[in-house]
Write a structure and sequence with these properties.
single chain; alpha/beta; Rossmann fold; 2 domains; eight-stranded mixed sheet; four-stranded mixed sheet; 10 helices; 12 strands
């Protein structure tokens, strides 16, 4: 009798992360720890730099050194699924070198703050499955390839185009690493909910230089009331379900859960980096103008951030 041949084990899914900021570094580390093979795609200018192991501090304060592979644009043939975690205003610049090189079969997952970028990516890669997502994990960059996971949250992904609807398994693989991740066919509703929270938390914390938890105090109650009403008006005009009370409640919950965190916009302002105000409040203002809806408080925050950036 011939011995039964064992079916060879398939290799674990290979993720390629584009964007090694705070959140990208944390996600790469969590994916690696879950047993999924990971590589980070770096700019060609970084070839000559020292690339140590990832120094990762988990939520329980445990320290881990992770040997995560680096790759560059001339190795793009190795990419099976691309998770883009740059800042919103960096997405197009980061992806442009991959045009004509990335296989049209590779799914692209966009996971950044704000909205309005996926439409541009779809024009660059019209044949690729394109997914968009939201996450509220907390992360901090502590140094060169050094990252700290500062808060656990939810992550949701969903299809931006029809080709992406066949990739629900990506959400399952993310869940293996992140613990709380899921697939949502109607991801636009979640994107807008996250946008609303960002419109309230990011500009207020950046301008007042406070931690997220401060927004849950009476000092900011009136501002959150006004902002949530304006955001609700725009969301309803966009055909989405929204109530001002619910938007404010969600925002306060996030602030309480991330009370000791500094928002990404505040961190960017303090470091002299360009913020994501255009893809957050700027996107909201564009949609408000399209519906002829007045949003004076959001508009004043937008101009205040722009003035400080300048």
């Amino acid at each position: 009798m011939m011995p039964l041949r064992k079916t060879p084990l398939l290799p674990p899914p290979l993720w390629t992360l584009l964007g090694c900021g705070a959140l990208g570094g944390v996600f790469a580390s969590l994916l690696e720890q879950s047993g999924q093979r990971v590589q980070v795609l770096l700019r060609d200018a970084q070839r000559s730099r020292l690339h140590p192991d990832f120094d990762f501090i988990a939520l329980d304060s445990s320290h881990h050194l992770l040997g995560i592979t680096r790759c560059f644009t001339d190795q793009v043939a190795s990419v099976r699924r691309l998770l883009v975690m740059t800042k919103a205003h960096q997405v197009i610049t980061a992806l442009t070198p991959l045009v004509g090189k990335l296989s049209p079969a590779v799914p692209i997952v966009l996971l950044h703050n704000g909205m309005g970028v996926a439409e541009q990516v779809a024009r660059l890669f019209p044949d690729n499955p394109l997914l968009v997502g939201v996450t509220n994990h907390g992360a901090m960059r502590c140094g060169h390839f050094a990252y700290r996971h500062t808060g656990k949250g939810e992550t949701w992904v969903g299809p931006f185009n029809d080709a992406a609807k066949a990739y629900q398994n990506l959400a399952e693989d993310l869940a293996r690493a992140l613990g709380d991740a899921g697939w949502d066919e109607d991801i636009r509703q979640r994107q807008w909910q996250k946008l609303a929270i960002n419109c309230m938390v990011n500009p207020l914390t950046a301008l007042h230089k406070v931690k997220n938890g401060e927004l849950a105090t009476p000092r900011f109650a009136d501002a959150l009331d006004q902002l949530s009403v304006e955001l609700c008006d725009v969301m309803q005009a966009e055909g989405l379900h929204a109530s001002a009370e619910e938007l404010k409640r969600r925002t306060i919950t996030v602030c309480e859960l991330t009370a000791d965190n500094y928002s990404s916009m505040l961190q960017d302002m303090e470091a002299g980096r360009l913020t994501e105000i255009e893809s957050i409040t700027g996107f909201l203002l564009a949609r408000a103008d399209a519906h002829d809806i007045a949003v004076p408080v959001n508009r004043s925050l937008y101009h205040a951030i722009k003035e400080k950036q300048a």
